[in-house]
Specification:
mainly beta, four-stranded antiparallel sheet
Amino acid sequence: MRLRLSLALTAAVMAATAGHAAAQPPAYHLVDKIALPDGGWDLATFDPVLRRLYLARNEAVTAVDVDTGRVTGALAAIKHGHTVVPLKGGAEIMVTDSGPNTAEFFDARTGAALASVPAGLKPDAAAFDAASGLAVAMNGKSGDLTLIDPNTRKAVGKIDIGGALELGAGDGQGRLFVNVEDLNQVAVVDLKARKVVARIPLTGCEGPTGIAYLPVSRRVVSSCVNGVATVANPATGKVERTLPIGPRPDSVLYDAKRKVAFIPTGEELDLFADDAAGVRPLGKVATQAGARTGALDEKTGRVYLPAAEYTPASTPNGKPQVKPGSVVLLVLEP
């Protein structure tokens, strides 16, 4: 069931950087809610070829045809999924699974299992690097990267980083920037040389999770659990700015067409412009509880955020529980 809604931008325009006039934030607003099956989820990804939103779930991969709204609740069976990576023009998907500590390959149309590739401990975030042709699994517990050849569906190398790894982002030139959560730093990895070539201390950041490389400003933005985003310059190896965001971020999204970065933080979506002068805040949009991760469609500019309604925790140290039948995919557009 789909619900047509409209939700106004909630924050005033923030001051632009010195020498620039204030700019009106894009009027992103909620236009749809697509009902999803019950159950938890981790990261969302978008396949522009098949035009699907993939959501890695606890026991399955959910796929949403964004043009028709059709939901395939369990496209592929897994143990504990974290990230879905579309490969080979959308024909296949690779899913990191921390149950058996593997990267699982599936036929994207049928969900048929194709291969199981051993990874490190707790493979979590993952990405495809077009410059090297490698798929990369970031192993949160063993602190290393598993390099996988999508053509052979086999592991072809490992890069030790150390620490608790979170998400990573590539620059399109063979460098991968990886958040190291417990060390509050970004590890800069040269995938061709297969080694860490630099480390950027994230001053002012606690627990970096989401990350994106912004190609216009050539900056790396990391979202932090203490309610800030850091803007780091890889050329200098230093943080240039620390910007306030919401309290519970888990990813950073980037729209290369519109040159806008998004940080979903639970109940708001923070927006940032990427231009030659640097990274600057554009404002924020109210969303919904649980909307801490997402994916975007550059063709339409739509942003997709999984969310849910929650019941209060039953014990002082307990976690809120998702209300049955409340899991949805929020759809926002400019």
